[in-house]
Design a protein that fits this description.
Shape: globular
Largest sheet: 9 strands, mixed
CATH class of the largest domain: Alpha Beta
Distance between the termini: 24 Å
CATH topology of the largest domain: BirA Bifunctional Protein, domain 2
Strand content: 25-35%
CATH architecture of the largest domain: 2-Layer Sandwich
Number of domains: 3
Helix content: 25-40%
Structural class: alpha+beta
Low-confidence stretches: none
Radius of gyration: 29 Å
Mean pLDDT: 94
Number of strands: 31
CATH superfamily of the largest domain: Bira Bifunctional Protein, Domain 2
Length: 567
Amino acid sequence: MRMSRMLIPTLREDPADAESISHKLLVRAGYIRKISAGIYAYLPLAWRVLKKIEDIVREEMDAIGGQEVLMSILMPKEMWDETGRWDLYGDEMFKTKDRKGRWFCLGPTHEEQITALVRDNVSSYKQLPVIFYQINTKFRDELRPRFGVIRGREFIMKDAYSFHTSVDDLKKTYDDMYRAYSNIFRRVGLDAEAFEADSGAIGGKMSHEFLVPAEYGESEVVKCEKCGYKATIEVAHAPYKKVDYPPSDKPIEKVHTPGTHTIEQLAEFLGVEPSRIIKSMLYMVDGKIVMVLIRGDYEVNETKLAKVLDASEVRLLTPDELDEMGLVKGYISPYAVKDKDIKIIADESVQDVKDGVIGADETDYHYIHFNIDEFDVEYVDIRQVNDGDACPVCGAPLKRYTAIEVGHIFNLGTRYSEPMGATYLDENGQRKPYIMGCYGIGISRVMATIVERSHDENGIIWPISVAPYHVIITVLDVKKDDIMTVGEEIYKALTDAGIETILDDRDLRPGVKFKDADLIGIPFRIVVSKKTVSSGEYEIKDRKTGEVFKVSKDEIVPFLREKIYGQ
């Protein structure tokens, strides 16, 4: 392809709204352009990368027996009502009405649709197991779309679904999918690891997220370097740090604590450890208020809290809601709900706190010498695991870091088949619900994650497996026919050999052309100039290593074939 005819609108400056490396570089290198918040157009280079990622995904899905389909993005409300997820999915779902007033959604995921399709078309145990997958556009109205295509409102995803007669049969496919995902991420150049994870709105009994360490990841994980324990922060467990405060024989006392708006400020003002402070928060849990207590050196894990309470919606009360109750955020105590029908849940670490500190239900005031024993409290594990907490398996310090989720696999069980009446006839003629699995990969997110992990100060460094082109021929002095003719000859030879090549035939300064080649990240660059033509030696630069090779014209094709294909 001739670069003079290609749409590659490179920029020298970072876009003002970009935070992450991938967002900056994909815009600057002419791969994507913003349409609206969280919505992007993929330009020609990006589309080639996406197609190569998709091809690798297809090869691995087909290898384990997957059958590719393409489902409708637009789905009727009634389908989602069968599982209760029309309301459960919440504000992330894009909803619309047709001209007849019938409700539809733009698919954020496709469990309902695939279950309905299999229910109506697969009826016997003899047809099972089956795996269907698609590569399609998804829509989720993210509250905070950010980091370019890492967290967008419109994105490309591969989602697969398997149907089984038994848990053991599902486990086999789950394990096959686990290995296929590992192969996919290895082939696209990502160091993804699988972590035990929460199933979220998808549901099911077990799930694993495939995560890649990254500064701008939105997932948090913990890992033990000693024994290998690892989990996402939503499901991670660790023993809490024990404290041994002697009980006080002093009566509870209300003290003035002006300007103490944080735990750190309050601890310094009172001269106590943060672990001696108990934070009180009021949550709305499926329409009912619950008080949650946690030690000052910990934070509430709302995913754990929702699981403990078997709740679908958990959120903090707003300042306005607290004001209606006569309460102020940051100064609440259990005394505020003592005579009300409000359940009190406390993290298990709170039970060790004696002679504690707690809010006094009044701005700038706290109670000291507080004793939790006078309240009826249920103690559970609802805290976030911190960096350095003890591993629950071996006791070594845990490392907490951010990562990007690139894939997620779920054991759904009968979460969808039972409510949707999706059954098959077993060998005894009995109707039974399908046992299901679900498996997703964010195709567009994978592209951005590769950039997050593979770049330098000059631009993107694409792995050969997904690079939009393998080689860029940078022709200097394009107005000189003899130089341009050699560039054309090398371009034809490489193209005829099946090596995907860009010919930079633009009439621009050498420095600009070199910077663009580095920015867009093509693995190999060949320089054709007066010097190289006259010497008969052509410079081939490896974008990843920076190594420069001197190769004769006749050796260019076999040299690059070996570098690219290993043959």
